[in-house]
Design brief:
The chain has 246 residues and is mainly α. It is built from nine helices and two strands. The longest helix has 36 residues, at 23-58.
């Protein structure tokens, strides 16, 4: 019924939303949507892990560790993500060996999707380091001193005292960074990753429905960001401590 309506809309008014009535276009669009969701989820998890690891090393006693984290943060915060993605895909990938594809040919060791995940994770992770650092520094020093006086090790202090409080403080900023990460995934189009924008561009190149596909693309990304905002909002409400100002 939905397909018939959009077919009629195209025939009667020239509004060609082919993804709703053409099975091939719909399949391509859904594949691109799945690829985008996959890149977003893996990159978000990896960037959070990088942020936590980076802030742990930045607060440690190792001078080398602190310098490495500082260099990492400065490099990825001060260069465009498209340049970073191109550097990994064209420069770093060329230094890696290829592997057989089972059909007599050679395939790159890391796919375009893999490089997109690596580049976006490192990019967002650099911002997460600073977000977590700001949250940790906002934890009252008296709270940390009280935990140390009870014999907490540095790891126990971070896991049971500092990070739970810091997360509550930095969640709004973290939310903004993760939303930007979702929007940044469109840059994977530049290296031929079959994500949402790539799939949409293939469809409008063949069906000449740029206006319609741009509207579908816009609504889809609004929906993706809305889901992330809802999840982060639920997380923020679940971690809120009554009477504790954040």
């Amino acid at each position: 019924m939905i397909a018939s309506f959009f077919q009629w809309l195209n025939d009667a008014h020239g509004l060609n939303f082919s993804v709703f009535y053409d099975a091939f276009d719909r399949s391509r669009f859904l594949t691109g949507l799945w690829t985008t969701i996959y890149i977003c989820v893996v990159s978000i998890v990896a960037s959070l892990a990088l942020g936590l690891l980076g802030v742990w090393l930045a607060g440690g006693n190792s001078r080398i560790g602190r310098l490495v984290v500082r260099a990492y943060v400065q490099f990825f915060r001060n260069t465009p993500p498209l340049v970073q993605l191109s550097f990994f895909y064209f420069a770093v990938a060329s230094l890696l060996p290829t592997v057989g594809d089972g059909f007599g040919g050679q395939s790159p060791l890391v796919s375009g999707t893999g490089w997109a995940i690596i580049a976006f994770s490192l990019f967002a992770g650099a911002f997460n380091v600073e977000i977590f650092r700001a949250g940790i520094e906002a934890v009252p020093s008296t709270t940390i001193e009280a935990a140390e006086s009870l014999g907490y090790t540095r790891l126990q202090l971070y896991l049971h005292v500092v990070l739970p409080l810091a997360f509550r403080i930095c969640l709004p900023a973290l939310n903004n960074n993760l939303i930007n990460l979702v929007k940044t995934t469109t840059l994977a189009y530049a290296i031929g990753v079959p994500e949402l924008l790539y799939a949409a561009s293939q469809i409008w190149s063949e069906m000449f429905n740029v206006r319609e596909m741009m509207n579908v693309l816009l609504v889809t990304y609004v929906a993706l960001v809305a889901v992330l905002v809802w999840i982060m909002g639920r997380w923020e409400r679940a971690m809120r401590i009554p009477g504790y100002s954040t």
